[in-house]
Sequence to fold (224 residues):
Amino acid sequence: MRAYKFRSASQIAFALDIIINRRLFCSDWKMLNDPMEGMFVYSHQSSDGYDYKKEVQKIIEEKKRLKICSLSATYDSHLLWAHYAGGFDGCAIEVEIPDNHRSVKKVDYRGVFAHVSMPNGRSPEELANQVLYSKYQEWNYEQEVRILQSGEWFQLDEPVKRVIAGHRMPPALFEAMNIICNSMGILFCRTGIGDEGIDADYVEPSAVILPNNQFNWDALKRAR
Fold:
């Protein structure tokens, strides 16, 4: 599965960590920007006499141990660039994630609250995952791909495929990213905006790089 992680120019250190260390950071889900994230309502059979509050508490406890990394299935969205890449001053990092990985799933978009029906034969862990793999439908433009796990780092099996720089990326940073990507064999592109949407236009390798992989400092000074 191809997915994209957006980073602004101010977060470039995090982008470099993905590129160099081939890993994605998973944060506490309560730090996500949707205030309704992780909230759910439940329904149950009121006539069976069972205390479902205990089951709800188990789901809450399971949620506490989970961390999330949010990616998108697309880079062609003005809103994604505006909200997560500093208004086109950052970049989108293209990665490959296994389709059948147990921690990876495309988000299910729904109403304001996630809904859990009990009893349904599913464990508290499964129900916590169900809640956190869903999101309010107002966010569906993100086409979110979500990694959900207990650990902070999700290791990528394959190197980064491509880096797409926003067309507002500062020139010195753009040159540095060009150097880094081409020295690592990563395709480097830049956003182009037209009537049909956002394109990823190929960028020629920087003149700062010489055939023997030595930096041309004079060219770098000129580029500044």
